[in-house]
Automatic annotation (TrEMBL):
The lineage of its organism: Bacteria, Pseudomonadati, Pseudomonadota, Alphaproteobacteria, Sphingomonadales. This is Probable membrane transporter protein. Keywords: Cell membrane, Membrane, Transmembrane, Transmembrane helix. The keyword Metal-binding does not apply. InterPro entries: TM_pro_TauE-like (IPR002781), TSUP/Inactive_protease-like (IPR051598).
Length: 259
C-alpha cells in the first residue's frame, strides 16, 4: 500500500468521523464513494464490505458515550435491530448479486434522495419518556418491526450504517426526541453493520488494511467532531443543510460516473 492510499484512507476516516461527531450521523453514506473515488478501491463490492466493517466498529465506539449519558432506549433498539438484521442479511445477498457499476448508480440515486429528504423540515410531537413495555408493545411493535426491516434491507444492500434512515425511522415509530434517536440508532447501526460485514467477510470482500486505517481515522474525526459539536450547536440547521447539499452533489457525481 503506497503513501497516497494510506493518507486517503486515513483522511476518509477522519471526514466520516467528523461528520458523525458534528451532525450526529450520516457520515457513513460517504464511505463507499470515498473508498471508490478517493482511496481507489476498484471493486464496488469490496468498497461496500470494507465500509460496513469500519462503520460497525466506529458506531460501537460512539455508542459507549451515548449509553453513559443515558441516551439509549435499549428495548426499542433491540427490536429495531433484530428486525433490521434480518433485512440487512437479505439486502447484503441481493447487493452482492448485482453488477458493481449498477450498484454504484443505485447508491448515487439513494444519496440524492437522502439529501433531499434531509432538507425537509420535520414536525413531530416528541415523547421523551417513551418505553417499550407490555402496555406499549401493541402500539410500538407494529411500527418498530416493519420500519426496522425496511431500513435493514437498505443498509445491507448498500453496505451503509443507515443512521440517516434509522434516526428518522425511530422518531417515526416512537416519537422519541432526536438526542435519544441518535444514541439508540448507534446500537442499531452496530448491529446492521456487523450483519452486512459478516456477509461480505465470508465472501472475501473486505480490504482489511484499508478498514484499519478508516477506523483509526474515524476515531480521530469523531473526537474532533464531538469537541466542535457544542460550539456549533447553534448552527446545526445550517450544518445539516450544508451536509445535505454535499450528499446530493456526491450522489449526482456517482450516478454520472456509473452510467
Amino acid at each position: 500500500m503506497d503513501i497516497g492510499t494510506i493518507v486517503a484512507a486515513l483522511g476518509s476516516g477522519v471526514l466520516i468521523g467528523l461528520i458523525l461527531g458534528v451532525v450526529g450521523g450520516g457520515g457513513s453514506i460517504l464511505a463507499v464513494p470515498l473508498l471508490v473515488y478517493g482511496v481507489g478501491i476498484g471493486s464496488a463490492h469490496a468498497a461496500i464490505g470494507t465500509a460496513a466493517v469500519a462503520v460497525a466498529v466506529n458506531a460501537f465506539a460512539s455508542t459507549v458515550g451515548h449509553a453513559r449519558a443515558g441516551r439509549v432506549k435499549w428495548r426499542c433498539a433491540g427490536v429495531f435491530a433484530a428486525s433490521g438484521m434480518i433485512g440487512a442479511a437479505i439486502g447484503a445477498e441481493i447487493g452482492k448479486a448485482i453488477d458493481g457499476q449498477r450498484l454504484l448508480a443505485l447508491f448515487g440515486v439513494l444519496m440524492i434522495g437522502v439529501g433531499l429528504s434531509m432538507l425537509r423540515k420535520r414536525r413531530t410531537l416528541e415523547a421523551p419518556n417513551v418505553r417499550l413495555t407490555r402496555d406499549s408493545a401493541a402500539t410500538l411493535l407494529p411500527r418498530l418491526i416493519p420500519i426496522g426491516l425496511t431500513v435493514g434491507l437498505a443498509a445491507g444492500f448498500f453496505g451503509i450504517g443507515g443512521g440517516f434512515l434509522i434516526v428518522p425511522g425511530l422518531i417515526l415509530a416512537t416519537a422519541m426526541p432526536l438526542p435519544y434517536a441518535i444514541g439508540t440508532s448507534l446500537v442499531v447501526i452496530t448491529a446492521l453493520g456487523l450483519t452486512t460485514a459478516t456477509s461480505y467477510i465470508v465472501s472475501g470482500l473486505v480490504d482489511w488494511p484499508v478498514t484499519a486505517l478508516l477506523v483509526a481515522g474515524g476515531v480521530v474525526g469523531t473526537a474532533i467532531g464531538m469537541l466542535l459539536a457544542r460550539p456549533l450547536a447553534t448552527r446545526k440547521n445550517l450544518l445539516e443543510r450544508g451536509f445535505a447539499g454535499m450528499v446530493i452533489a456526491v450522489g449526482a457525481y456517482v450516478v454520472a460516473t456509473s452510467i
